[in-house]
Amino acid sequence: MYYRFGKAFHFLSIFFFILVFIYIYSSVPETVAYEIDEQGLLSKGFSRSSFFYTGIAIFAALNIILAVPAKMIEKQSTLKLKRLFPIGDDFRDYMLTWIFSFTGVINVSLSILALFIHSINNQNEISSSSFSGFFYLVPILFVTWIVALFWILSQKFKSLQRES
Question: Is residue 74 a contact partner of residue 47, using CB atoms and an 8 Å limit?
Answer without folding.
Answer: no
